[in-house]
Amino acid sequence: MRDDAPAGPVAADPAGLRALAVATLDGNWEHDHTVPSRTLYPHQWSWDSAFIAIGWAHVRPARAWRELASLFRAQWADGRVPHIVFNPSLRVGAYFPGPEFWASALAEGAPAAATSGLIQPPVHALAAWLAYRRDRSEAARAALARLYPRLVAQQRYLATCRDVGGGDLACIVHPWESGLDNSPAWDAPMAAVRADAAVMRAYRRHDTVHADAAHRPTDLDYARYVAIVASYRALRYRDDDLADRHPFLVECPLLNAAMGGAEQALARIAAVVGADPGPHRDRAAAITEALVRRLYDPTTGLFHPRDLRTGRLVPARTALGLMPLGLPDLPARTAASVIAEACSARFGLAPRMERPLPSHDRTAPDFEPLRYWRGPSWLNLAWLLHRGLRAHGRPDLAAGLRRSMIGLVARSGCHEYFHPDTGAGLGSPAFGWTAALLLDVLADP
């Protein structure tokens, strides 16, 4: 973003906050998509673009559809939507891991554009539905109809190629695919990945140039990230040998909750574009049932990732475990248990929240309020939980979370994430999805 663009604290009035959010999105616009930030994230990211499209729908609807269309132009032949689409105008080495590291052109079915080989949570169908709901014009309906088969292909890829565990859930093959890259949820599965910090001597990290190293993943964790990518790249990003050859295979509550939510959104979209919504409703119900059966732990009242290498649930209590509340057909008893856990001292949800929603159990010994995804508060997680609370009849808690989200930006600006105690802005300033989701909560009290 431009150095003179507004990014700091502003008055907590809706007009001022809306102006800040729009200026942030405008400053990050790149001819057909929005970069997450002008510093650390100069390319197009998958679930960022989905959240950003939700914000654009409130102020420049045409950009919402361009955002999604540009991302899906890089969809692979197998249906996967890559988690990064690289800007070819940037010099080689300007970002790590860049296109030369991923070498996507070597993979069968990869697009002409340079991309990563990984995916991120499929929140895109929800974004498309929310964008259409804001603007039911004929142009929007036509854009929705063009996008529908690509969204269906995305879901088909996850339901088939990524059902490695055979339990009707999709697995992630890298922590980055979860969206919560550095969560404590991945510590146990990552510990089995063979790598050491010496791996990083061949590379130069760019994240620690733009952010405090104490706030970012450690060099050892980054070496493991690189080793996992190298394993998948050696398979040329094929999924048929994952069970035998890949070191990281985990069923993630957030990714699968997003997948179930996508089927519900696709049922609504199908009714608009003249397709049959029934199969989408059936798949949504099947995903919810599988999530409860495989990832819910009644002893903790939370959902947990399942490590397919060990067959065990990961014990860490993170915000991932709250995300299935976004599914309106979650059994009432299960939803009540998850809400009770969200209201505990671990997460602090309340009608009048004293502190922001953390990304990890704030009572845990490995809670880190400054380190990426290991404690800080993120607006996208709060936004997803806000929707879930409304779906399960807790408008009081949803209102408290909404006030907390607005207060974070009013205090600190559109930062990437926030200190879970003080609300101070952390990570990249002028962050795209923070601005976009702020627009959405401001417009929908």
TrEMBL record:
InterPro entries: 6-hairpin_glycosidase_sf, 6hp_glycosidase-like_sf, Glycoside_hydrolase_63, MGH1-like_GH. Residues 41-434 form the Mannosylglycerate hydrolase MGH1-like glycoside hydrolase domain. Keywords: Glycosidase, Hydrolase. The lineage of its organism: Bacteria, Bacillati, Actinomycetota, Actinomycetes, Micromonosporales. PANTHER family: MANNOSYL-OLIGOSACCHARIDE GLUCOSIDASE. Belongs to the glycosyl hydrolase 63 family. This is Mannosylglycerate hydrolase MGH1-like glycoside hydrolase domain-containing protein. SUPFAM superfamilies: Six-hairpin glycosidases. The keyword Hydrolase applies. Pfam families: MGH1-like_GH (PF22422).
